[in-house]
């Protein structure tokens, strides 16, 4: 039987982390549950200790990519599941995401979340990610920015370093497809915090757009034949 490790990168998630971890414990069978507290300024790490097998505290905020990298490298599972800390009770639906990887139907499963209750922004970041992934790999992604993923450990080992910041999801998808791994997108009724149509929301989406563009440019450059090592 394959061992499953759940990795949750979390930054200032004190209001949601307890409900998220409890739902995982109660409804998902996993061999280890690891929380990487990415320099939180609240009680995230303290609350996570009640449920997690391991809580890794980073002294400063290093970004989601770095937190994920540290978390999966400290894990031991054959399958690594990445979940956000703000899923609350809906984290218990993670079995739908895990199933195709355990059944060897794919090497990485990506969750397609329900449509947001309120439309926010103009979809520029998601559109850029979808077009970029299609341009670089030919894959038509429905959920290019979804951070909820179940991944075979050997895939992560083959890819090595994960992109940092908001480009992590796009980078993972492009690298996995280029390496010949199988990806499947799976509808899962996860619910998480939505960004609004306020300054904070627009600022977040603006940073996300820039990071995605930077990641896509890097992946394009890495794919050029003249920089490949013999």
Automatic annotation (TrEMBL):
<dbReference type="Pfam" id="PF00535">
    <property type="entry name" value="Glycos_transf_2"/>
</dbReference>
<dbReference type="InterPro" id="IPR050256">
    <property type="entry name" value="Glycosyltransferase_2"/>
</dbReference>
<keyword id="KW-0328">Glycosyltransferase</keyword>
<keyword id="KW-0460">Magnesium</keyword>
<dbReference type="InterPro" id="IPR001173">
    <property type="entry name" value="Glyco_trans_2-like"/>
</dbReference>
<dbReference type="GO" id="GO:0016757">
    <property type="term" value="F:glycosyltransferase activity"/>
</dbReference>
<dbReference type="InterPro" id="IPR029044">
    <property type="entry name" value="Nucleotide-diphossugar_trans"/>
</dbReference>
<comment type="similarity">
    <text>Belongs to the glycosyltransferase 2 family.</text>
</comment>
<protein>
    <recommendedName>
        <fullName>Glucosyl-3-phosphoglycerate synthase</fullName>
        <ecNumber>2.4.1.266</ecNumber>
    </recommendedName>
</protein>
<keyword id="KW-0808">Transferase</keyword>
<feature type="domain" description="Glycosyltransferase 2-like">
    <location>
        <begin position="5"/>
        <end position="115"/>
    </location>
</feature>
């Amino acid at each position: 039987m394959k061992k499953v490790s759940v990795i949750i990168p979390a930054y200032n998630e004190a209001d949601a982390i307890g409900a998220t971890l409890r739902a995982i414990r109660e409804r998902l069978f996993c061999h280890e549950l690891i929380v990487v507290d990415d320099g939180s300024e609240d009680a995230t790490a303290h609350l996570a200790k009640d449920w997690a097998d391991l809580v890794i505290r980073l002294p400063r905020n290093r970004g989601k990519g770095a937190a994920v990298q540290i978390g999966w490298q400290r894990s031991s599972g054959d399958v690594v599941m990445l979940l956000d800390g703000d899923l609350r009770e809906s984290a218990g639906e993670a079995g739908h995401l895990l199933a195709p990887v355990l059944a060897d139907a794919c090497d990485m499963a990506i969750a397609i979340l329900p449509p947001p209750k309120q439309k926010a922004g103009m979809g520029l970041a998601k559109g850029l990610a979808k077009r970029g992934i299609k341009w670089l790999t030919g894959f038509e992604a429905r959920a290019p920015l979804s951070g909820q993923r179940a991944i075979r450990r050997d895939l992560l080992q083959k890819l090595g370093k994960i992109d940092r910041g908001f480009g992590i999801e796009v980078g993972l998808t492009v690298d996995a497809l280029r390496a010949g791994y199988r990806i499947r997108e799976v509808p899962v009724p996860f619910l998480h915090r939505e960004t609004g149509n306020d300054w904070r929301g627009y600022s977040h989406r603006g940073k996300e757009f820039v990071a995605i563009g930077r990641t896509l440019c890097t992946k394009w450059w890495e794919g050029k034949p003249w920089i490949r090592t013999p």
